[in-house]
Write a structure and sequence with these properties.
globular; mainly alpha; single chain; 9 helices
Length: about 270
């Protein structure tokens, strides 16, 4: 970006190139582990990958397509939030960028726990261990939500400390952005807890092979409620950027309740 070590300063182009290089190297590293690491070598996971296994392809597609659509709903709703913030002005847009970056960093923990939940629930389901399904799911939920409650407290108690990592909070020119970012982080405290719950709930259900109904939950919660309520509060209610974040938090809360309710029903019935 800045042209250090004798390289030209590429600005935003450099940021994109760096991200592409990092992702490419990550793929190469993971592929090397799959091919050469001892725990995976005996499975020959990439051996003869050019031979079509159509029944397995269909099974993967049936399970994976709803997950992809769910993630699409999630990513596009945040893109829409950026667009709405831009309509409100540069200060709300800047404050949103700061708050969403902070929330995104903490979100990585429950996201990782959700993936672990998918694996552990799936293993328990595969061996017919009904009690193990419940233990794996609820343990992941408790750990993830415990972490998110702690981060929510940090957002409420020390917002300027977090904002200061990204922006000079003492500069007078930044005062409007800092003030709004503090308000957004207050909403993000609730946002954190329900966002963690919904992503872990989705991971638990994926371990049971349940992906279609959660996809519908995401469509309703993210777009029907999240963006709908957010836009109404921001522009109709005069809440501005706080309204958009309140809408997102409301949508995530609805999705989290639906995910956990479905998990409870499936776990109670022993539907692995």
């Amino acid at each position: 970006i800045f042209g250090h070590a004798g390289l030209p300063a590429l600005g935003l182009l450099g940021s994109g190139m760096a991200s592409s290089i990092a992702n490419g190297l990550s793929f190469v590293a993971m592929a090397a582990v799959i091919v050469y690491a001892r725990p995976f070598r005996r499975y020959r996971l990439l051996g003869r990958f050019w031979r079509a296994d159509w029944p397995r392809y269909r099974a993967v597609w049936k399970l994976g397509l709803p997950i992809a659509i769910t993630l699409g709903f999630e990513s596009t709703v945040f893109i829409a939030a950026v667009f709405l913030m831009g309509l409100l002005g540069t200060v709300p847009l800047a404050a949103h960028a700061i708050a969403i970056q902070i929330a995104s960093v903490t979100f990585m923990v429950p996201l990782g726990i959700a993936q672990a939940a998918t694996i552990r629930v799936g293993l328990a389901s595969g061996r017919g261990d009904r009690a193990g399904i419940g233990r794996a799911g609820w343990a992941a939920f408790a750990i993830g939500e415990g972490f998110m409650v702690l981060t929510a407290a940090l957002l409420i108690l020390a917002p300027q400390l977090l904002i200061g990592i990204i922006l000079d909070v003492d500069a007078p020119a930044n005062a409007p952005v800092v003030a709004l970012a503090i308000s957004l982080l207050a909403v993000a405290a609730v946002f954190q807890v329900v966002d963690g719950a919904q992503v872990i709930g989705a991971g638990m259900l994926r371990g049971l092979g349940d992906t279609k109904v959660p996809m519908l939950f995401a469509a309703i919660g993210y777009w029907g409620i999240g963006i709908g309520v957010g836009a109404w509060l921001a522009f109709g209610g005069g809440w501005g950027g706080v309204g958009i974040w309140t809408g997102l938090a409301t949508g995530l809360a609805v999705v989290s309740v639906l995910m956990i309710a479905r998990w409870q029903a499936r776990e109670r019935l022993g539907l692995g």
